[in-house]
Amino acid sequence: xxxxxxxxxxxxxxxxxxxxxxxxxxxxxxxxxxxxxxxxxxxxxxxxxxxxxxxxxxxxxxxxxxxxxxxxxxxxxxxxxxxxxxxxxxxxxxxxxxxxxxxxxxxxxxxxxxxxxxxxxxxxxxxxxxxxxxxxxxxxxxxxxxxxxxxxxxxxxxxxxxxxxxxxxxxxxxxxxxxxxxxxxxxxxxxxxxxxxxxxxxxxxxxxxxxxxxxxxxxxxxxxxxxxxxxxxxxxxxxxxxxxxxxxxxxxxxxxxxxxxxxxxxxxxxxxxxxxxxxxxxxxxxxx
Length: 288
Description:
Helix content: 10-25%
CATH architecture of the largest domain: Roll
Low-confidence stretches: none
Order of helices and strands: EEHEEEHEEEEHEEHHEEEHEEEE
Structural class: alpha+beta
CATH topology of the largest domain: Diaminopimelate Epimerase, Chain A, domain 1
Number of strands: 18
Radius of gyration: 19 Å
Mean pLDDT: 95
CATH superfamily of the largest domain: Diaminopimelate Epimerase, Chain A, domain 1
CATH class of the largest domain: Alpha Beta
């Protein structure tokens, strides 16, 4: 009897957390020598129906270099932090690379991930540091109609500041953590806004362990709320560095699942270093 083909291996990893069912889940799929077209990749991402699915392909001739692509349930994206961290976690924790550094060839260039000892006594516990491009923020000239649309989408929230990002998001500053966590955005109205998604953020209160809080909404990409968005923090680091006159942050994404990111902005190189942990919660094979 012919041996049944196993299919494409995948793992689901919760990123930017050290607890299962927190942080942001990503499916990490190992294509290896499997040839799959874009329609199949997008269909599988829709089947997983979580914020991101990533696809890893080893690059011949390199010990620790992989092609990496990211898909939401609706579209391929240019940059994704949590699914990159999840991919690196799978490679490091399963002994698939013999180095503390791995490179990913992506639509945003070559991105690196580094395994970092977290200094804790727990065996096998480690952080992953991602080296990403900074996403600049800038002033935005909105028409009265667009301003009203954004205010309506955010359910009348008090807006302290508003910026555009180089990745076609709008960054909106709210007064406090409470205004971020209690926000109930109107997804149908966000769909009509002149952007791919809306990042809301607020400075942390004095005495908090965090520097700032945020949430991210991207229904146009099939993700009503991204639980913890690494790429959004490439813009948040730029914005808050200008406001706080500092380059190192502890950030809190205030979604229901929540997540924590350590951030360093390298102004000279225009890079953002994102550190976080991850937990593998399931594994299996795609049979089709």
